Amino acid sequence: MAFSIRTRLTFWYTALLTVSLIVFAATFSYTLSRLFMSRLDAQVGSVANMMVHTVMNPRGEILLPADFEIILERFFGVRTAGSYIQVIDPHGNILGRSANLEGASLPISKETYEHAVIGDTTFEVIPRSGAYSLRMVTKPIVFKKQGLVAIVQVGTSLELMEEIFNSLIYIFTIGIGVAIVVAGGVGMFLARKALYPVTEITSAARRIEAESLNERIDVAMPNDEIGMLATTINEMIERLEKSFSQIKQFTADASHELKTPLTIMKGEMEIALRSGDDLKYVKEALESSLEEVDRMSDIVNNLLDLTKIEAEREAAPIIPVQVDSVLTERFNAIKRVAAEKGVELVMVKNSPLTVSGEPVRIGQLLSNLIDNAVKYTPGGGRVSVSSESENGFALIRVIDTGVGISIEDQPYIFDRFFRVDKARTGGIGGAGLGLSICSEIAESLKGTITIESEPGLGSTFTLRLPLCNTVA
Ligand code: ADP
User: Fold this and answer.
1) 177 CA → ligand 1 middle, Å
2) Sign (positive/negative) of CA torsion 349, 350, 351, 353?
3) 20 to 30 Å CA-CA from 139: which of 74, 201, 266, 331?
4) Is 67 exposed, middle or buried (0-12, 13-18, 19+ CB in 10 A)?
5) How far is the CA of 265 from the centre of ligand 1 (A)?
6) Are residues 273 and 372 part of one domain?
7) In this model, does residue 400 exceed pLDDT 70?
8) What is the pLDDT of residues 101-139, one digit of tens each?
9) Does residue 146 share a domain with residue 69?
């Protein structure tokens, strides 16, 4: 059965308190009883010693005066009140006993007797039915020649001690019982109070759903353990909120981008259908549709690429890549397009550099940057490409004299589906995914892309990739 933390805390707290109290009560009682016993032993022991002197006359004979109690008090100054005194001979015959015994006799066990025979004194507790127990000392009188000649027994009642202990047991039982009940109640209350914020967090976290990710848990004490937990959950919700809104935005953008070519295709086809048997319109519609299909296929390929690059981050095949040769290859591939457009494309510098990565992705990154520079530079302009090493990085610059990007647009150009010219549907440029792919690739290689641009004057894209230590 699973108990709540509150119940478990209270249980352990109360159990610990109970054990502590019982240990305390036991130690206290034991120490007190030792103290009592040693006091009583000293008392009965001293009476017994005096009795031995009283019983032995100066000639070394045993003679018990009838008024031994008076002698004890007068000559030895021993207070006999409360002490039961008895003297017996080695055969157990009573030689004399104190008046307070009222004819009863003090017992002697076989074991005590055997001790007495060899001259040993015995202290023991004698239980008495219907009366308080006795603490009794049995002291033998042993002469060298005759051996055991008499046994002196002195006992005193354990009344005071037993009464104190009975009261103690009563007090401890009631006290511990009350302490357990109070501690349990207080413990439950304190545990509930301490765990209250957790209950709050739980219900707040339950309330927050995909549609209400803007809500946050109230953090009353941000620096205690529970406050830190709430702050961490809030941070997690914030990340979720961001991801959710990115996904929403992405879905809306992707649907919009794919819908546009579909609308164009639909329109073209309707015109073709309405044009009767005129093949000219049908051909035009097919050509236009093919263009839109290419466009859609580009978008889908780019989206797939983005997903793949993200997935590759975990398990990308990392090999040394010669940046200079990839750059030459991509530069040459774009050269013809640039020439057709009348844009001068030049390679200013191409140092031999090696970076770690995946050659196809690095090629894609370089292509996109040079492609964009040519795309957004009108005929007569110039695009220069350079590559060199700087502080452990391969530094690749693509500089154009094209249309440039305003300072307001610059922070967004790496976002998915972002285009400066939002109205553009065809012509130059794509769906605004090229630079997102570039930044994803650069990030996966632990590199960066920065931009400096001025509208009308041109742009400079600077790519930094960490150089590889291994020589390929
Ligand atoms: P697109 O497919 O539209 O080229 P990109 O992600 O490659 O998408 O670029 C995003 C936007 O950034 C482009 O639409 C364009 O407006 C702007 N841009 C990118 N490169 C350049 C450049 N070299 N010169 C001016 N504008 C650029």
Assistant:
1) 81
2) positive
3) 74
4) exposed
5) 25
6) no
7) yes
8) 888 889 999 999 999 999 999 999 999 888 889 999 999
9) yes
Whether 377 is in the pocket of ligand 1, judged by its Cβ within 6 Å, is no
Q: CA 446, CA 357: separation in Å to the nearest integer?
A: 10
* Residue 393 belongs to domain spanning: 316-470
Residue 346 sits in the same domain as residue 403? yes
Residue nearest to atom 16 of ligand 1 (CA): 420
Cα(409) to ligand 1 centroid in Å equals 10
Ligand 1 atom showing the smallest separation from residue 418 Cα: 10
Phi-psi bin for 471: left (phi > 0), alpha (psi -120 to 50), beta? beta
Closest CA to 219 of 206, 238, 200: 200
Instruction: Indicate whether 226 pLDDT > 60.
Output: yes
| Cα(368)–Cα(346) distance, integer angstroms | 16
Residue 362 has pLDDT above 50, yes or no: yes
Residue 70 CA: distances (Å) to CA of 76, 99, 139, 359, 471: 9, 11, 21, 121, 117
Specify whether 282 is located in the same domain as 414. no
Note the pTM of the prediction, 2 decimals: 0.60
